[in-house]
Design brief:
By secondary structure, the protein is an alpha/beta fold. The protein contains six helices and seven strands, in the order H-E-H-E-H-E-H-E-E-H-E-H-E. It has helices spanning 5-11, 25-30, 44-55, 70-80, 115-136, 155-164; strands at 17-20, 35-38, 61-64, 86-90, 104-108, 144-148, 169-173. The strands form three sheets. It has a three-stranded parallel sheet with strand order 3-4-5, covered by helices on one side. The radius of gyration is 19 Å and the shape is globular.
Length: 175
């Protein structure tokens, strides 16, 4: 659900299950995820599987946005997709030795290679979908923004904030 993931999927009619660090679970829920699970939990696969079964949902699509999460994703799909085929959009490059799951198509997501098609795609994303979504409120900008006051003089405070650790937040210094 990074950035606009939850609103995009909701607009398309999907039920969104997501993973996040424990400190960001409520935040990701606020972006529209039906359920959010701590990705560091040792039983995250069983938690997601249990929730999907309780909700009566067959999970047949997934979007992997971080490295080393494909196997867990396939484990969830294996237990929740039912008899139908499944599809996984995979944002990181797919390693040659990537795991597979019978009846599941895994594709690397990337905008079109042809420059004209790519330009049309990007134009539609930002000048149509995003513009309309922001105007209507169906798209909520994410991550949260934390503005550190003081202009350039606040830079050290901003760096201290980053050093202390932030998650799900962009630290901004206005100059």
């Amino acid at each position: 659900c990074r950035l606009f993931g939850c609103p995009i999927r909701q607009t398309m009619g999907f039920t969104v299950y997501a993973t996040a660090g424990a400190q960001n679970i409520e935040y990701v829920k606020s972006l529209g995820a039906k359920a959010v699970f701590d990705y560091k939990s040792g039983d995250v696969v069983s938690q997601i599987t249990k929730q999907a079964k309780e909700d009566g949902v067959n999970l047949r699509t997934a979007h992997v946005i971080v490295d080393n999460a494909l196997q867990q994703t396939l484990d969830v799909l294996k237990l929740t997709k039912g008899d139908g085929p499944a599809k996984v959009a995979h944002a990181p490059l797919i390693p040659e030795d990537a795991p597979t799951l019978e009846g599941t198509e895994i594709k690397f997501t990337f905008p079109p290679i042809d420059p004209d098609e790519r330009n049309k795609h990007i134009y539609k994303c930002f000048n149509v979908w995003l513009k309309d979504g922001l105007s209507s409120g169906t798209v909520v900008p994410s991550p949260r923004i934390q503005v550190v006051p003081g202009g350039i003089g606040g830079l050290n405070d901003a760096l201290d904030t980053l050093k202390a650790g932030v998650s799900g937040t962009k630290v901004v210094v206005s100059v």
